[in-house]
Amino acid sequence: MPRPISAVIHLQNFTHNLSVTRRHIGASKIWSVMKADAYGHSIKHVWKALSSTDGFAILDLHEAILLREEGWTGPILLLEGFFQQDDLKVVDQYQLTTSVHSDWQLDAIENATFTAPISVYAKLNSGMNRLGFSPDKYADAVKRLSSMSNVSSVTLMTHFANSDLTTGTDLPHQRIKPFIDHNYPVCIANSGATLWHPKTHYDWVRSGVILYGASPSGKWQDIADKDLRATMTLRSQIIGMHYIAAGESIGYGSKFTASQPMKIATVACGYADGYPRHAPTGTPVWLNGQRCALLGAVSMDMLTIDVSECQEVSIGDEVELWGKNLPIDDVAQAAGTIGYELMCALAKRVPVLYEE
Ligand SMILES: *Cc1c(COP(=O)(O)O)cnc(C)c1O
User: Fold this and answer.
1) Catalytic site positions
2) Closest alpha carbon to 152 in 91, 85, 219, 82
3) What is the pLDDT of residues 257-267, one digit of tens each?
4) pLDDT score for 182
5) Cβ of 284 below 6 Å from ligand 1
6) Of 18, 162, 215, 268, which residue is most buried, by most CB within 10 angstroms?
7) Where are the alpha helices (DSSP H) in the chain?
8) Of ligand 1's atoms, which has the minimum distance to the CA of residue 206?
9) Ligand 1 atom 4: residue of nearest CA
10) Ligand 1 atom index nearest CA of 191
11) Average pLDDT for consecutive 10-residue bins of the chain (356 residues)?
12) Looking at ligand 1, which atom is closest to the CA of residue 99?
């Protein structure tokens, strides 16, 4: 018998979440963001469930090549652009759209030999200060790109640092507005802006985490009214049970000490499975239709939960660490992180089932 942990990927929920996303954006098109191997879900297994998208946005060239080999013939956007001159051969061969954020990339595109001109996304640094041309250099970069015979179309792009906040897109939106005219398509909205800032939708949105049923803000309550559904359930089983007396402690570092007699259960899931080691006592875990509390430190392969209030509980009972019944955002929030990180961190050793 294998260890009783597994992840279930709910493919139909991708299709559902994509249609929820479409309802928010009118006639705008969607780049479905699948970087980090589809936020830990596996591009290879999930892309077909999203194949009614308008395009896929990824990071690594090998992700783009995989999509082409899998049969996707639509647009593919390299969110971070190409990393060296040589990468442009792949951009050309696989007909990729690339973002352009630095001067050296302008020279590289100018000097490359393509079988057909390429589409580019010119990235403005609107205040996040990660990638992009500064506002004073942006007009020149866009002009230079659009004059290149190697370039067939230029789209204006920027990225928001605070799209989960009510006024979080105001300043960066103001900074790109002077460059927006009818000559260039515009693509600036991520998931937060897709849900909460309709004025930023323009021609294309780039939606990631909402396709995976998690909240761009990290708080599930913020998307509770959106009918987004979890795409990943992490589940395991109870493999041990104990009654402990007041004064007894649990796990490494004895981080939790019982103040009264308790019934506790050990679950076959630990940080080597991708469960956050920093999840503190009280982090919710789903068991037999109710939330139980994590107790003490998460070990490499196991964690412990309080089942004192559970009537019937026995070894072999299924436990949900996050997923259909327990939003990943709630677990992430308790552990001081965001759903994005937990999805991406699902460990290789966890067997994954893809459910139609
Ligand atoms: C990751 C990423 C996105 C998608 O972000 P979500 O918050 O998951 O929607 C959009 N644009 C860029 C440039 C990104 O890197």
Assistant:
1) 35, 252
2) 91
3) 999 999 999 99
4) 86
5) no
6) 215
7) 11-25, 35-40, 43-46, 61-70, 87-93, 103-111, 135-147, 170-176, 191-196, 328-334, 339-344
8) 10
9) 208
10) 9
11) 93 98 97 98 98 98 98 98 97 98 98 98 97 97 98 98 95 97 95 98 98 98 98 98 97 97 98 98 97 98 96 95 98 98 98 96
12) 13
Look up residue 4 and give its DSSP letter. S
Distance 136 CA to ligand 1 centre (A): 24
Among all chains, which residue has been given the structure tokens 């490359």? 112
Q: Across 185-231, where does the E strand assignment appear?
A: 186-189, 204-207
Kind plus residue range of the DSSP H or E element containing 97 = strand 97-100
First-to-last alpha carbon distance for the chain, in angstroms, is 25
Structure-token pair, residue 68: 């082409």
| 16 Cβ inside 6 Å of ligand 1 | no
* 169: nearest Cα among 139, 138, 134, 199: 199
Q: Whose CA is nearest to atom 13 of ligand 1?
A: 79
| Model-wide pTM > 0.85 | yes
pLDDT at 2: 82
